[in-house]
């Protein structure tokens, strides 16, 4: 069993983990970069005022020129100093060498235009072995309307990010009506880029209840559901952390996978959002986080 230090980091990787002073679409579609599947930000959420609120939030960005907020692809969470958890569909369909050339990870950025956070490169990617996209029964040829199962991946960074606390992974199932918060740098509207990190408040809802709102196939084994309060996930939020609180301390309870786009609705449409539940894949996550880190 992996042993966690004070802030969730495996003991021995960093000598200390202190709070740093202190995770929209690309103009080309993300599906064109990564293949099938949609990468969805927190539409109508509220801006995060302090970097200290979510220092472990991570943002996957396509390397290149131009403002960072125009190159956001997905979100994620730093769960150990060298490991980030995100959605598998954010990094599937492309060889590791290509991902290394095209993607970098920014940890702890609040306002991308003024504070890019800690930048790290990829050295490894492990998607859950049971991850797959599930075609829509109504429109099997639409990648955007596809759902997913076991939609989670672990990224290995080229350096340890020891300057910020990490986000512990929940080892208990989320309970119906528990409050939760989703973080993301995705679109805040049809064409509004997510420069400032935003938060959306959610309530955990029964997965079977939420499944009635979409024709998509919802995997009850690996997925959980949350409904936003005046906030919905949007393009660029895929892989973003759904954070619950146990005894007042944040923990990763889910990873955003898909929402009402599976019903053919536009970004920001009110309805359930679906997340890979951390507890449902906990054993696999623990094994991956305990894997030796090379490089």
Automatic annotation (TrEMBL):
Q: Which GO terms describe its biological process?
A: proteolysis
Question: Which positions carry the signal peptide feature in this UniProt record?
Answer: none
Q: Which Pfam families match?
A: Trypsin
Q: Which SMART domains match?
A: Tryp_SPc (SM00020)
UniProt-recorded Gene Ontology molecular function terms: serine-type endopeptidase activity
| UniProt xrefs under SUPFAM superfamilies | Trypsin-like serine proteases
Positions of the Peptidase S1 domain: 42-290
State what protein this is by name. Trypsin
Please name the taxonomic classification of the source. Answer: Bacteria, Bacillati, Actinomycetota, Actinomycetes, Actinopolysporales
């Amino acid at each position: 069993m992996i042993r966690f230090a004070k802030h969730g980091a495996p003991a021995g990787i960093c000598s200390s983990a202190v709070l740093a002073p202190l995770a929209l679409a690309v103009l080309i579609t993300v599906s064109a970069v990564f293949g099938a599947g949609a990468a969805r930000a927190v539409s109508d959420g509220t801006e995060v005022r302090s970097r200290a609120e979510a220092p472990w939030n991570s943002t996957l960005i396509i390397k290149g020129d131009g403002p960072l907020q125009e190159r956001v692809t997905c979100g994620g969470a730093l769960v150990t100093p060298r490991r980030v958890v995100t959605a598998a569909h954010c990094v599937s369909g492309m060889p590791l060498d290509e991902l290394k050339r095209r993607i970098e990870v920014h940890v702890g950025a609040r306002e991308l235009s003024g504070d890019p956070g800690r930048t790290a490169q990829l050295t490894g990617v492990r998607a859950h072995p049971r991850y797959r996209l599930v075609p829509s029964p109504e429109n099997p040829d639409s990648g955007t309307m596809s759902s997913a199962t076991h939609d989670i991946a672990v990224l290995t960074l080229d350096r340890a990010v020891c300057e910020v606390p990490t986000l512990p992974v929940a080892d208990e199932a989320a309970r119906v009506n528990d409050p939760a918060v989703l973080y993301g740098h995705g679109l805040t509207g049809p064409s509004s880029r997510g420069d400032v990190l935003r938060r959306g408040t959610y309530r955990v809802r029964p997965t079977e209840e939420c499944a009635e709102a979409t024709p998509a196939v919802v995997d009850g084994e690996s997925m959980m559901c949350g409904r936003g309060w005046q906030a919905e996930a949007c393009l660029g939020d895929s892989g973003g952390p759904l954070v619950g609180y146990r005894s007042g301390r944040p923990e990763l309870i889910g990873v955003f996978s898909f929402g009402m786009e599976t019903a053919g609705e536009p970004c920001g449409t009110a309805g359930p959002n679906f997340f890979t539940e951390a507890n449902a894949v906990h054993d696999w996550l623990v094994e991956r986080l305990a894997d030796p880190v090379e490089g």
